[in-house]
Amino acid sequence: MESRKTDRMVFEIPVGFTAEELARFCRVKPDSPAFAVVEEALPLVLEYGKPMAVIRWVTVDRTDGDSATVDGVTFRSRVLADKLKDSPRVFLSVITAGSGLEKCEDLDGDPFLDTLNGALLGYATGWVVRTVKEKFGYDGSSMLNPGSLPDWPIANNFALFDMIGGTEEIGVTLRDNGYMRPWNTTSHIHFPGHGYQNCSLCRKYDCVGRRAPFDRREYIRIFGVEP
Ligand code: SF4
Fold this sequence. Notes:
- By secondary structure, the chain is of the alpha+beta class.
- The protein is built from 6 helices and 10 strands, in the order ββααβββαβαβαβββα.
- The strands form 2 sheets. Strands 1, 2, 3, 4, 5, 6, 7 and 10 form an 8-stranded antiparallel β-sheet that branches. Strands 8-9 form a two-stranded antiparallel ribbon.
- A hairpin with a 5-residue loop joins strand 8 and strand 9.
- The radius of gyration is 18 Å and the shape is globular.
- It binds iron/sulfur cluster.
- Iron/sulfur cluster binds next to loops.
């Protein structure tokens, strides 16, 4: 379901996946013992999962070596300036797994709950990117989220939330330190670029959540120093 006002849209994201798909989002292999836990949780996730998102289209006014001005707001960030330099139009998003699963008594205190919420968030993010592609023909699969790199710190969430025009409809609030509630919520600037991943520039080399290999050459090109 979608509510729409000019350049801003709110999505109630329909939840629908198989046990295999849910397992993939949970990083559980189908032949592992944990797969039975996923199968058991699936009907609860389908019933209680209520992910939501808000997006807003914005214009990139200009980019410089270490800054980008988006919708009249200037951000100091080399990676942002580099990634947005060829994208006159981008969209912002706040996407949340919501707190639906917390309302399910059967999942109360379940150690798997956070994994399920993380899976819902991953699914919801893919849904938003896919939906925007289908509706507008826009590839927003490349994303930068505040706090993902030292060059693009979490404090940028305050400006991003102002620009997106509030998140009350999706039940997300911003804390004084720039982090969001509920916990499984992300904020992004989406732009075209062959599925750029922050991981490619992130120096947490042994991160278990890594989705792309570290790209040393690209790191040096953008930041001008050895990692
Ligand atoms: S490597 Fe890990 S910490 Fe770094 S951006 Fe990727 S998921 Fe985040």
